[in-house]
Amino acid sequence: MRPVKKGKWPTNQFGYIKLPADYRDFLPDLKADIGHYCSYCECRTRSLDVEHVIPKSINPQKLEYNWYNLLLSCPKCNRDYKKDWNPSRRGYVWPDTHDTFDIYEYHCDGSMSVNSSVSPYVQIMAQNTINLMHLNSENSSDDELVDMRAEMWETANEDLEDYNIGKKLPDQVAKHAKKTGYWSVWMTVFKDHPEVTQKIADAFPGTLPKYCTP
After folding, report:
1. DSSP letter, residue 61
2. pTM score, two decimals?
3. Alpha carbons 173 and 201: distance in angstroms, whole number
4. Which conformational region is residue 2 in: left (phi greater than 0), alpha (psi within -120 to 50 degrees), or beta?
5. Where exactly are the structural domains of the chain?
6. What is the pLDDT of residue 141?
7. C-alpha torsion 95→118→130→207, nearest 10
8. Which of 59, 98, 51 is nearest to 78 (CA)?
9. Residue 148: which of 163, 161, 132, 136 has the closest Cα?
10. Consecutive 10-residue runs of the chain (214 residues): their mean pLDDT?
């Protein structure tokens, strides 16, 4: 999962914090802030839900319109998998509060795993998130996401080969990555080329500044 740093609560034309009649009215603000990508599977799609990290059903008055409780999610991750299974943020890792790219590792076969170098407690939380969101084939009856990540790995690797022989520049790679999504795959494939990974991180709105060009 791409770690993100959201901006401050959006304001209206008068400078007051935005309090829309429908929480889905935050969708343009979220897209501008963190891009047109699912916060969990990392796909790029026109169909995105405004997703409540802590389910709004827990406390509708406090959580439904709280900007800091909102992320973007594809319908599959939000409606089919996450739903309201997590009663709080505790016990999981989230892309707006954790350095999720440091916590997870991505592999050429499309699978992902928890980084064994993080603390045992974080490992448990990270695995809980994988289970909750069905991010690996062993956690789902559907291998589609793993297959898509494997295909994206091949695409990114082709760009890496072109980059190594001078056929592509960092900005061209970053532009391609932005169009396709799956930020973590691109960052992993180009991990030995910080001049490229910084451009990739820059291209995706709201990426944790740690990964962007200083």
Report:
1. H
2. 0.95
3. 11
4. beta
5. 144-207
6. 57
7. 20
8. 51
9. 136
10. 96 92 96 98 96 96 96 96 96 98 97 97 98 83 87 98 98 98 98 98 98 96
